[in-house]
Write a structure and sequence with these properties.
By secondary structure, the protein is an alpha+beta fold. It contains 5 helices and 4 strands; from the N terminus they run αβαβαββαα. The chain has one domain: Glutaredoxin (3-Layer(aba) Sandwich), CATH 3.40.30.10. The longest helix is centred in the N-terminal third of the chain and has 12 residues. It is globular, with a radius of gyration of 13 Å. This is Glutaredoxin.
Length: 103
């Protein structure tokens, strides 16, 4: 495994809720990342760790390989890939995301 994938793996496994996004939770740099943060806040996620992929090109490209998912943002809960903002919205509307975040 390359160094960047190991770094991503460590981030995913060392935090309960990790969002790889463009920008920060306080200042999202794209609409999809902003929507992802809003969804997580609506779910009451308090232990959110965000990673700004714009700060590191290797992470920005590596995260796409890590989960074999081509877009950002990407949400991980308890070390497992959940999905991007569209999947997060579908899960939120179905009540599944809230349940995942509280268990």
């Amino acid at each position: 495994m390359s160094d960047v994938l190991q770094t991503i793996d460590q981030l995913v496994k060392s935090h309960r809720v990790v969002l790889f996004m463009k920008g920060s939770a306080q200042f999202p740099m794209c609409g999809f990342s902003g929507r992802a943060v809003q969804i997580l806040k609506a779910c009451g996620a308090t232990d959110l760790h965000t990673v700004n992929v714009l700060d590191d090109e290797a992470i920005r490209q590596g995260i796409k390989s890590y989960a074999n998912w081509p877009t950002i943002p990407q949400l991980y809960v308890k070390g497992e890939f959940v999905g991007g903002s569209d999947i997060m919205m579908e899960m939120y509307e179905a009540g599944e995301l809230q349940q995942l975040l509280t268990t």
